[in-house]
Design a protein that fits this description.
globular; alpha/beta; 6-stranded mixed beta sheet; 33% strand
């Protein structure tokens, strides 16, 4: 009998209670299709209610869920009287790009450090790869901290070799050369870190985080301080890691970046989860209540138009939030009475606008930072 399956690097053996991962001892459920002597297996983690024998007829009744790289359950972290993270639960699906969004001081970095086991929660449970971490170091995780820190007197090639060897990679030479070329740093390989610009140093630290090809990559504000060219290079590198099967978590207060890159978006404000899901599901919650318009000349105060709740002026165009139940065509007619309308678009609210609605004026101030 041949067995094919979709799990990565897993040895699955047949037993009376289903398929068992012989390395991690996890049970899995599977969708089975008989094709001659082939059983094709699509594997998901499961909780067993009734056993199924591949050679028998007993039916399988399961509570199934996709595999998750990270799970947080009711996690709370306090520093003295300050509650930095309050009763936080979330799950990061395997192979996804998961964005942590929120203003500075909202609890993003604290949450990432608890996932890394650098900080310990006061309450709740955290599981990474299905189990609690023991110690902060693991070869399966690459971490780019918010506070950058490289050994300034070491040469770039030497420091990357050092990080690769720490993760047990003996075949580092080709990998180091490839990454340096990809991020346009080959000419700086034999220069000391202290001679690099801030952007170059940040790219070197990114390479150090991913040189061992980790299954989970955690990036704390990876695009902060980068010029547009280097931000684009780093963005492409992050998405390549995802294509190669890694799970990516990155924190940012740039919601435009999160909209473009993330499969899932988690927003935290003052330690509380305020949003969690795909961009589409988040936007669907609010509906198409936003108008983007470009107008010629002085059209006066748009807030005086019936049905207009809020106006954001971006110069070339204005973004109007409608009151619930308002008619977009009635607002268009009112705009046309005031002048020529060059652009009129009915749209879902942006991620930034949604966050400002939830978090209020304080959030609006920090998103301009």
């Amino acid at each position: 009998m041949r067995i094919t399956h979709t799990t990565q690097h897993r040895l699955l053996t047949v037993c009376r209670t289903g398929w068992r991962d012989s390395t991690n001892k996890h049970n899995y459920a599977q969708a089975v299709t008989a094709e001659s002597e082939t059983i094709r297996v699509v594997v998901v983690r499961w909780n067993l209610e009734k056993a199924y024998s591949p050679c028998g007829t007993q039916r399988l009744s399961l509570r199934c869920s996709p595999m998750e790289t990270i799970q947080l359950e009711s996690v709370t972290k306090q520093f003295g009287d300050v509650v930095a993270v309050d009763d936080l639960s979330l799950a990061v699906p395997e192979g996804s790009v998961y964005g942590f969004i929120g203003p500075n001081g909202s609890g993003k970095t604290t949450t990432l450090r608890m996932i890394m086991n650098i900080l310990y929660p006061n309450a709740g449970a955290i599981r990474v790869f299905g189990e609690a971490l023991h110690g902060a170091a693991t070869d399966r995780i690459g971490y780019l901290p918010e506070e950058r820190g490289l050994y300034k007197k070491m040469k770039v090639r030497d420091i990357l070799r050092f990080y690769a060897e720490l993760k047990g990679r003996g075949d580092y030479k080709r990998k180091v050369a490839d990454w340096l070329e990809r991020l346009d740093l080959s000419g700086w390989a034999d220069k000391k870190v202290e001679t690099l610009s801030k952007g170059m140093s940040q790219k070197v630290q990114f390479i150090a985080a991913v040189i061992a090809e980790p299954d989970l990559v955690i990036l704390d504000e990876p695009f902060s301080g980068l010029d547009p060219v280097n931000a684009e290079v780093l963005k492409d590198a992050v998405l390549e890691l995802k294509r190669n099967g890694a799970t990516i978590i990155f924190s940012t207060h740039d919601m435009g970046v999160a909209e473009k890159m993330c499969d899932y978006i988690f927003m935290i404000f003052k330690g509380h989860k305020v949003l969690d899901g795909t961009l589409a599901s988040i936007q669907q919650t609010y509906g198409a209540d936003t108008l983007r318009v470009s107008l010629d000349g002085d059209v006066g105060d748009l807030m005086t138009i019936p049905g207009v709740n809020r106006v954001n002026d971006y110069g070339p165009f204005k973004e109007i939030r409608m009151d619930g139940g308002s008619d977009s065509q009635a607002i268009l007619a009112a705009l046309m009475e005031r002048g020529a309308v060059q652009r009129f678009e009915v749209a879902c609210p942006s991620l930034r606008d949604i966050f400002v609605r939830i978090a209020g004026p304080e959030a609006e101030e920090v998103t301009h930072a």
